[in-house]
Amino acid sequence: MLLFLDANVLFTAAISPDGASRALVRSSVMGACRLAASPFAIDEARRNVVSKRADNLADLDEVLACIECLADAHPALSTWAGRYVVATDAPILAAAVAARADLLVTGDRRHVGHLFGRAVHGTRIEPPGVALRLVLDDGP
Length: 140
Description:
CATH superfamily: 5'-nuclease
CATH class: Alpha Beta
Number of helices: 8
Helix content: 40-55%
Radius of gyration: 14 Å
CATH topology: Rossmann fold
Shape: globular
Order of helices and strands: EHHEHHEHHEHEEH
Largest sheet: 6 strands, mixed
Number of strands: 6
CATH architecture: 3-Layer(aba) Sandwich
Strand content: 5-15%
Strand order of the largest sheet: 3-2-1-4-6-5
Structural class: alpha/beta
């Protein structure tokens, strides 16, 4: 199962060692799933860690070592994704769809929450806790 992680999930995994986001990272290390993110998401997560929780930068690097960095989506696909989410989140949804991810994992309830439990072009959108349950139920 391929999970595409939003920047907020990467950020949370870096700053919260006991949360669902970090548990997803541990699950990937155990072979239960594959984790991926785009340069767009990784750059956003890094900026947020540096500006808000600089003491967790090494933790972010540990998390990123477990993540496949996949290409950002073509701008036309990001424009298309803007039909589903706000423009700032469109590159994330577009990259997840382009990667044919099984899940897009995001904690953004405000802008993406309306899509939780739904699939957009084959990529299901879920918050970290639900994604973790799905991974654990699916098994390696």
